[in-house]
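Sample 1 of the test manifest.
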Amino acid sequence: MTQKRRVLEVLLVEDDDRDAVLTRRAFRKQQDVNIARVETGEEALDYLLKVNGHIRPHLVLLDLNLPGIDGHAVLRRAKADPEARRIPIVALTSSKAEDDVLKGWDLQVAGYLHKPIDLDAFRDLADKLVGWWASNEFPER
Amino acid sequence: MEVALARKTADLERTTYILSHDLRKPLRHIVGFAEAFLEDYGTLEGLDDQGRQYIEEMVGGAKRMERLLDGILQFARLGELDESTIVNLYSGWKDVIDDNRSDLDEIGGHAHVRGHLPKVLGSPRLLYQLLGNLVGNAVKFRSKERPLKISLHAHTRGNKVVVCLEDNGVGIPAYLRKEAFDLFRRVGPQAQSTEGMGLGLAVCRRIVEAHGGKIHADASPLGGTVIKFSLPAVYG
């Protein structure tokens, strides 16, 4: 069963407060998007694996460089779970290092985005991202 | 010795990673929050045009720094040959000229090949970038007094092919020809006004050296610069 979404529930996994502020700002004018933020890989997995009654997001924006369980580990664990693997996880990262890009795609990211340095560019990216994902059908959460 | 070298290489790789990731983050914060400040408080009383300009200068500086970081990263990634096959220099050259056709037409520039171009051994991707950077430089540093002429020729010497790319541009003064190939060195007489950050020739040197060759600049009989570089020849 799939159904059309009115509000796109996004989980932002970002350990840096300043980056979280800027990311929220980039998405600010997007309507019908709800961003919940967690700071660690552990918390992200709680959402993805539905631990402690958390509800799964439609889409995850994942910073790869996290303390503790890092972004790659989150991807590995999520993709090993028969239900969590269906949730698209888009890497949103500072890293242009080739290894990170390869590793991300190997771990089945649904996209690999580089955080733009410029706010307008970030807003453009948010616009495209929401435009694309809001037009998708998602499994029931 | 080998252990020390391995550690040095690992350190260098780590440095590159830091450049590509860790240094970018504070830079993004500088730009992001300065822009957010201008958006939210840019029209407040007390912040006049000059105040706004000061902040825009900060943003501009941070963005230039990001381009420098990208440049370092691009340079660092050129360390080794990803592939080595027989490369037809002539078709590589034609691709480069075709891709620069609109620029050349716009400025009335002319590119031609003198004589036969021997085949070489190398990475088609890197050699394309090499020729592309050199043609780009010729366009960038053309003379305002005469229409641009670019001339390419090559000959085999022993197990090397020596390639010469001449132009009739503004040239590089003799005392700067060596350092022109250093990273972030801008030596053109128009260095202040011409875009770019002194990456082009450093990348060329890196590519030629990855092919086991050498590159240098000299005065061209055409009145500008000649860039000479060597690449591995194909036997048989």
